[in-house]
Inverse folding.
């Protein structure tokens, strides 16, 4: 079982000097790689980067499995209330490793496993439509927030609590599990005060690096995902991405290639899986790459405004939507494909011998076609001087998915050093959060509200309304 990283089309000999990376640039980067690696490992040694060791936390994983068993015995529905890093990993892995029909079929057809819903928004229609499907008596909410104060998650918790007690005087506490910081925040306070079952997100592990903690592992285990296989996959990737030889470390190498291509104008990084099951993974990565690398301040405090813009697309679907732009539009993109060597199932094309437009497909399989289309797109992009690289997974299994997630986390951490920014913080989202608290009347935010009003006053209002009514 091998996970391959093919970067042929990132290089100057494939896409030209202007867009491509040269061997000399890689040689120079190899030296820098050793320095960065030493720094990262020193930080890991000091316990500053605990996410590296999460796949080896056997005791924690055992606890998660035992709690999941209890949930599975008692409930038919598990609902994640959380957002960003508290939701995206779960969505990505669920769609990769459980069939897309998991929630749609009767309990017997999914082996008695609970349905899993991840509600990562405060759109009231969306929230209501999902709750409409659920019997409160049979529903367990996993409220997930590292900080314990995220407004979306807090409001979902309050709405869900009201929904649980609307039709009976049931003890709502039995329908919640809180997953949060071991010591701080209002969710922790709530867990302690109301004796609600809780799990800990290890200290020092921020939202988008929590995929191997109960944040994702608990809901996924409840829905029947093989979380042991997943973490074993991650653990098996560790030695391959924790050494300083650039050319044999796929995480560091891809970080370097992405960084060098960014310097040549490829400010948009497209991730394009050729697998519906892996599309969610590209959503997860979009957050990881954007929040980790998009920064105003460099590590030395200077203003830098850097960061590649991650975009995701699905092969082959988006060949008929986005690829025209990638092929002929501005030279501001690079594409990372994810392909699968062996699909779980396949279809063989039947004969239709008297129509040439169909006949050439006879005897071929659908997996052959999706693979041919990806290789064709990659080659055509390269010919048009568009850099692209490909991760080839042996299959879509817990092991492969766990391994790729781990690799991409290490890649992101390493890229932080290349871009000279802190990949573990997200100060840019704080201002919007404070204004939201101010607008929602939170105590202590009166000054922020004034600031908001002043800002509004400064901006001349230019808005236009037109009537929309049935004719
Ligand atoms: O990666 C991150 O840190 C963020 O995306 C958070 O996960 C997100 O903002 C939600 O935060 P919290 O888990 O504190 O509710």
């Amino acid at each position: 079982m091998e996970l391959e990283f093919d970067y042929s089309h990132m290089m100057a000999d494939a896409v030209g000097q202007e867009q491509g990376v040269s061997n000399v640039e890689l040689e120079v980067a190899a030296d820098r790689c050793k320095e960065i690696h030493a720094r990262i490992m020193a930080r890991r040694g000091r316990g500053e980067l605990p996410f590296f060791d999460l796949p080896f936390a056997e005791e924690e994983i055992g606890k998660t499995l035992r709690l999941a068993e209890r949930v599975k015995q008692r409930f038919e529905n598990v609902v994640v209330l959380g957002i960003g890093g508290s939701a995206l990993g779960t969505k990505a892995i669920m769609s990769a490793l459980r069939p897309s029909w998991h929630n749609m079929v009767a309990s017997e057809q999914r082996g008695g496993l609970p349905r899993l819903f991840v509600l990562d928004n405060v759109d009231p229609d969306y929230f209501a439509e999902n709750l409409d499907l659920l019997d409160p008596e049979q529903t367990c909410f996993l409220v997930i927030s590292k900080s314990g104060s995220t407004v979306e998650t807090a409001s979902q918790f309050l709405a869900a609590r009201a929904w649980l007690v609307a039709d009976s005087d049931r003890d709502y506490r039995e329908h919640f599990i809180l997953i949060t910081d071991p010591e701080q925040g209002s969710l922790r306070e709530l867990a302690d005060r109301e004796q609600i079952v809780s799990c800990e997100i290890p200290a020092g592990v921020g939202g988008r690096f929590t995929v191997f903690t109960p944040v994702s592992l608990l809901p996924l285990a409840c829905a029947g995902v093989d979380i042991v296989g997943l973490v074993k996959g991650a653990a098996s990737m560790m030695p391959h991405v924790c050494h300083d030889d650039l050319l044999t470390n796929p995480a560091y190498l891809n970080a370097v290639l992405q960084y060098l291509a960014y310097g040549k104008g490829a400010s948009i990084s497209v991730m394009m899986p050729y697998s519906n099951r892996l599309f969610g993974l590209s959503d997860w990565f979009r957050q990881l790459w954007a929040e980790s690398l998009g920064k105003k301040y460099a590590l030395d405090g200077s203003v830098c405004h850097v960061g590649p813009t991650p975009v995701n697309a699905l092969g082959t679907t988006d060949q008929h939507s986005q690829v025209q732009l990638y092929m002929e539009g501005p030279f501001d993109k690079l594409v990372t494909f994810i392909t699968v060597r062996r699909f779980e199932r396949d279809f063989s094309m039947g004969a239709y011998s008297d129509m040439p437009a169909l006949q050439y497909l006879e005897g071929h399989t659908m997996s052959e076609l999706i693979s041919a289309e990806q290789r064709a797109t990659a080659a055509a992009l390269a010919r048009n001087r568009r850099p692209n690289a490909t991760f080839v997974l042996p299959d879509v299994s817990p092991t492969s998915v766990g391994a790729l997630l781990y690799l991409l986390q290490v890649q992101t951490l390493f890229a932080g050093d290349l871009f000279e920014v802190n990949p573990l913080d997200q100060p840019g989202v704080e201002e919007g959060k404070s204004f939201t608290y101010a607008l929602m009347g939170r105590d202590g935010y009166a000054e922020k509200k004034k600031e908001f009003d002043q800002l509004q006053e400064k901006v001349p209002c230019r808005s236009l309304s037109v009537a929309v009514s049935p004719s």
